[in-house]
Amino acid sequence: MLKKQNRLKSKKAFSATYKNNNVVKTNLIVLYAGKIKIDKNCPTRVGFVVSKKVHKRAVKRNKIKRLMRENIRLILKKDESVINEYQSLIFSATDGIVDKNYEEISKSILILLEKLANKNI
Question: How many domains does the chain have?
Fold first, then answer.
């Protein structure tokens, strides 16, 4: 589970991140990135979204969120510099993610983070 300081929870924070229009996509996940940090000491906040369009059962949607959350937790533990550049990140699942396993989701997240790093260079 993510630390409390790394969770993006408020509706206001989600909408501010969406308005920033910094988006990268794969066939499984869409990543919305917030503003670049000015103060490097504040933690990056991460949110996860899986809509009912992806799967109608809450059990499946929650499983997808848990898999994405665990991947991000491990990346934050390694202290990836790409994630720590932003104030907030939102990972939103697409239709293709329903039958994927942990490794495929992990590859997709790493590809997204690479795209995000290359986008800002």
Answer: 1
